[in-house]
Write a structure and sequence with these properties.
The structure is a homodimer.
Chain A (H helix, E strand, L loop, with lengths): L1 E2 L3 H13 L3 E13 L3 E13 L5 E4 L8 E3 L4 E7 L2 E8 L4 E16 L8 E3 L1 H11 L9 E9 L2 E8 L5 E6 L6 H15 L5 E7 L4 H9 L3 E4 L2 H10 L4 H6 L2
Parallel strand pairs in A: 12-13, 13-14
Antiparallel strand pairs in A: 1-8, 2-3, 2-8, 3-4, 4-5, 6-7, 7-8, 10-11, 11-12
Helix pairs in contact in A: 2-5, 3-4
Chain A binds a DNA duplex through helix 3.
Chain lengths: 251, 251
DNA sequence: TTCTCAATTTCGTGG
DNA sequence: CCACGAAGTTGAGAA
């Protein structure tokens, strides 16, 4: 780690760090230009520039959640000094994109050999809903039998294909948040495509709630809605002793 | 900036830095737990933890473009030592979410007073297409006259409302990338809503290309497609001397 | 590669 | 606050 390096020192550190596949964290006053699918300009200011070991680049301003500019893993780098500024360029192909960072000064620069082998486990709400439904289909409708998950139907993927007590086909679509018109349309498309193959098909949208517009559309299309919250699903999975980890974090 | 601080030093630096609204960059071995809309676990490894001056939190692994965990601006923090570990918690309300970072050791910690007042300018491809079209509507169809942009139509916003040579209404929808079924459906919705008010309405999807599915749907709905690339639009804007900045970056 | 959908999407805009 | 659409969306998964 180097504090207040001059631009030549910074250049060397960048070059060495990149070729040694270090993760480099540099903070300094810089401007940023991007060109590719779009085009952006950001005049001089203090930012944190991070080049990761896999070639990913993220540049953060001192505020805001998202990086102001970035480049994906596998990007290629060039660094040089021109007109008294340190310039770092990040390239990618397909699509061809380029970021040019022009440093006026560097506050500090840290080329780091970081070790991180842990595997990230994410449990999403929709996963939870689907699992709970497969475990206990009656939370949506009594007598429902799940035929298949993620079934391909023409233009998209149906969450769950089921049979009801009368042997009719039921398409079940899950939304973890309040469902909007788009969700109803998506379900409607699936139902229409399956109906066109001659079967009796019902469509059920499962979500914690519906927008007003979605409710109207749903009714006019004679589709159905079943209210189901993620919380309820977690309780169901807990009761079968499947996800004690999740419940640890519920308060 | 502190190198290899012990946990007590780190705790003090975190507390002071957060209450002084510094941007804090900390690198160290930590585990991360998240609970809120979803739930995630990540066992110990080296990561860069950034707390920004506005309370935003981003945690980056040494690889990958996206942060592994994060919390938006305005989050609240608690830091303490427990069982020989430094724990930093980030809270938000609505939705209620929490991130718990447990440090085993800290490689370095930098509380920074960063100044960044510059304004970010982003030029998107869709902007460019729309501007070029308004400048020269004939790139889509000869004789077209633009009536309004971003016109609200029932459920959404139409990119451009136009009149053709026969005085008929034409809805023009732009997509900067190859357009899919969703784009056709969106256009179809707008056309349907305007037709329901009794007018003759045509719909034109303007994009560099169409997916096969989209092409079929477009035809069956009797909508139209006009091929137009962003590159062409840039040339058009250049020819009117509007965007020399953009052209500087084209190669 | 293309296509489709999810995301702790985030971010803006308008009602 | 809700609703809706764009994003340099990114990312994962399948054909």
């Amino acid at each position: 780690m180097i504090e207040k390096p001059n631009l030549e020192e910074s250049l060397e550190a960048f070059k060495l760090g990149i070729s040694n596949r270090r993760t480099i964290i540099a903070v300094g006053e810089c401007r940023i230009d991007y060109f590719g699918r779009g085009h952006s300009e950001l005049d001089y200011g203090d930012r944190a520039v991070v080049i990761k070991s896999d070639g990913a680049l993220v540049i953060h301003r001192p505020f805001g959640l998202e990086p102001v500019n970035w480049q994906p893993p596998g990007s290629m780098y060039r660094a040089y000094i021109k007109s008294g500024s340190l310039i770092v360029e990040a390239y990618r192909r397909s699509p061809e994109e380029k970021i040019i960072v022009t440093f006026k000064r560097v506050l500090f620069l840290a080329p780091l050999g970081l070790r991180d082998d842990a595997s990230f486990r994410l449990y999403t709400s929709e996963e939870i809903m689907k699992k709970a439904f497969i475990k206990r289909p009656e939370i949506v409708e009594k007598g429902l039998r799940v035929i298949s998950e993620e079934k391909k139907v023409g233009s998209g993927l149906v969450d769950c294909l089921c049979l009801d007590l009368n042997g009719g086909i039921v398409i079940v679509e899950f939304k973890k948040n309040r469902a909007g018109v788009d969700a109803v349309e998506q379900l409607s498309n699936y139902v229409r495509e399956l109906r066109s193959s001659g079967s009796e098909v019902r469509g059920v949208l499962v979500a914690p709630s519906l927008t007003k517009e979605a409710y109207g559309k749903l009714n006019s299309l004679k589709l159905e809605f079943k209210r189901l919250s993620v919380k309820k699903c977690i309780e169901i999975l807990e009761s079968t002793g499947e996800t004690s980890k999740i419940s640890d974090f519920i308060s």
